[in-house]
Amino acid sequence: MQEKFGTRTEALIGHDGTRALESAAVLVCGLGGVGGYALEALARAGVGRLGLLDGDVVEESNLNRQILATTRTVGMKKTQAGKERVLSVNPGCVVETYDLFYLPATADEVDLSRYDWVIDAVDTVAAKVELICRAKAQNVNIVSSMGTGNKLSADFVIKDISETSVCPLARAVRKGLRERGIERGVDALFSLEKPHTGEGRTPASISYVPAVAGLQMAGHVIRAILSSDTEGKG
């Protein structure tokens, strides 16, 4: 007898764990190297409702590191490429798309309170600070990715934002959050590896580094959902 989607997952986390993931809603903000792989893991784990947020299209330069980027999807909206990929894996997933760049000016277009978790894989400091502040204000769980560009080591850790160091992006985000009255209480993924000097102004990248970061963030969220479900059952 052929096994169904999720059979191997349920063998690990049990029927209740599977139901918890099916009942969960996660918003992935930014569908590049980090966010795309986070989305992949969430979809394959069986998360029931996924929000996909990105205002960009797939470009040829994305092919070296972004799972949503193929020669077929170049020129396609990342949200559309992401939706098609999720549904090709799990047709039962409810997929919601937001074709926008998350910024203070567009933040009102997204109701974060509809989600249990937000994965922050956006690029700019202003976007990260706004997203984190709004998630905190609405009591929505969030895990935020710090810098993954110009790195060769994939040794990432997830700790409180107050414990981040070395990473220039983390320093800028901490400053922005401090100005908004937030100094701790935010899960952040970061690396202690000093960024390598890339050629040109655009951050350099390699295939496996953002992938590991995205998968690690997805794992963090999945384990939290399963843990919360267990705690809720006393």
Structural Rg: 17 Å
Q: Write the CATH fold name.
A: Rossmann fold
Largest sheet: 7 strands, mixed
Number of helical segments with 4 or more residues: 6
Q: Report the average pLDDT across residues.
A: 95
CATH superfamily: NAD(P)-binding Rossmann-like Domain
Percent of residues in β-strands: 5-15%
Shape: globular
Helix % is 25-40%
Give the helix/strand class.
alpha/beta
* Helix and strand element order: HEHEHEEHEEHEH
Strand ordering within the main sheet: 3-2-1-4-5-7-6
CATH architecture: 3-Layer(aba) Sandwich
CATH class: Alpha Beta
Flag low-confidence runs.
Answer: none
Q: What is the straight-line distance between the termini?
A: 36 Å
Q: What is the count of structural domains?
A: 1
Number of strands: 7
Task: Summarize this structure as a short list of keywords or feature phrases.
Rossmann fold, 6 helices, 234 residues, 39% helix, 7 strands, 7-stranded mixed beta sheet
List the helices and strands and how they pair.
Layout: H1 7-22, E1 25-29, H2 33-45, E2 49-53, H3 78-89, E3 94-98, E4 117-120, H4 125-137, E5 141-145, E6 156-160, H5 168-179, E7 187-191, H6 208-232
Helix pairs in contact: 1-6, 2-3, 2-6, 4-5
